[in-house]
Write a structure and sequence with these properties.
By secondary structure, the chain is mostly helical. The protein has one domain. Helix content is 77%, strand content 0%. The chain contains 13 helices and no strands. The chain is globular and about 45 Å long.
Length: 287
Amino acid sequence: MPTGTSRGVLAMAVAVASFAFLDAALKVIADSYPPLQVSAIRGFASLPFIVIPLLFAGRQRELRPASPGLHLLRGALGVLMMVTFVYALREQSLAEVYAIYMIAPLLVVALAAWLLKERVDLGRWLAVLTGLLGVLWILQPSAGRLQLVAGLATLISALAWALTAVMARHLTRTDPPASISFSFLLLIGVIAGLLAWPDWIAIRAQDWLWIIAIGGLGALAQIAIIDAFRHAPASTVAPIEYTGLLWGIGIDRIFWGFVPGANVIIGASFVIGAGLYVAWRERLTTR
């Protein structure tokens, strides 16, 4: 494996691990604050880590959006994504949330075909269907009502994430990466913060370390993802995202003593298998 590709693979592994620990920190504070407030905290926490380095480098112009309307729509979708995700984290284990969230890359395939008119062959459409069947297996009717609602919230969050990813793909044609990340986080913070303000709970002193960790891990993950896609093909690094489930299972076991049930493992296997097939097909078509 070439050195550049090795660096890309390592960077994606760092990004996935960073997101897993970030989500664990979100789960910790989600027990103490409403989902809208946690979403606002998530948005604002990473902004200093993005803005300050650009200011010192004299590259603040990169923060200016070229398509403000599309940024605003993406930010609104980001709030929906975060609120439903935080709610799901509060009601479910990290592994259960991740098992359903693994459908997000497959939803990107479907949405890119619909919104961006990208060509998707029959095999990839069948993979999307297989992934959805895996999610339905996880959300089987025998689950409790609260667990089912939390699972559906995760699915809504994954759909909102997929929409923001497709919009980001479109925005890269006109806007620099810093502008896309900055506006997204800022809008999540502002919109969620305004909606949360009437029921805002004063942040406890012991939670500031978690918030700093959320900001730092979020910034590290973003930098690592950009580095991953710069040094390796998307079809090579994308499958590494599925290691997030292993991180989720490990973190759940160590910190919360939770082990996912058989339905989660079986359903996640369908979703991950479908995602790996799509990545394999993408690799074949880009050779």
